[in-house]
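Wait, mind explaining this?

_____
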Amino acid sequence: MRKKVTVVGGGFVGSTTAQRIHDAGLADVVLTDILEGVPAGKALDMAESAPILGSDSQAFGISTASGDYRETANSDVIVITAGFPRKPGMSRDDLLKANFDVIRGVVEAVVKLSPGAILIIVTNPLDVMAQAAYKLSGFSKNRVIGMAGVLDSARMSTFVARELNVSVENVHSFVLGGHGDDMVPLARYSTVAGIPLTELLPNDKLEAIITRTRKGGAEIVNLLKTGSAYYAPSAAAVEMVEAILKDKKKILPCAVYLEGEYGINGLFVGVPVKLGARGVEEIVEIKLLPDEKAALEKSASSVRELVNVLAL
């Protein structure tokens, strides 16, 4: 029997995530959205591509405008992408509270129907929304995971591969911290064919790559004018889904609830973890230099500020 994945939110990120899961045959997919007809239409379109792609996965789409999530029942993984983008005149706190309301409504509905599921949170501000989902769901901390580090590390790897003119398969980048301007790209732990990046690039090149990585999302928003990235975020979410469904024990940077690890307590922050069938199966602690530790603490403080706004 195939696994079942629900993707909540039928926008660009959600629908592309659902498409990638379906096309790869990883699981049957349920795509949900509050818009009438849109998720069903996108799911039918995916299903009609299956004979061409050779995927036997099923795709279904439902509108949840009435709050009816019954079709999502018994999902193995639930990816939550639903939320509002920041609009002109909207403060950071306004966005925070609006998306908290979205997360609250979704989480309360889906966890009743899929009490054994693993939640992957993509909605921004990501670390805070992951913390909200954790508190609202009542799930154990290993079953609520934020998608951030996989995306941020992929962006860094892209820039490194282009700078050195090497295959992206040779590059393994390492980004810790919150999903924002204070994220912590670690050049010392990033490698090209096992060679530390610090031995391959001068400091000015490294700093340029680190800065571009931190502003990776904003760079795409500025280019698109309307909307934000979705190809890379969806690919990142799917890598996490695959690691869980296939019990790969894959070490990936994800936002998880820390209880003393890295000196951080009671907060979702991006760190390397082992992902498998039980979700987060291990938090991997690495040794940080004083400046790296300080940068991670600064990033965590930025996340905590937002968490305090919601009193989570």
Observations:
- The mean pLDDT is 95.
- The two ends are 38 Å apart (CA to CA).
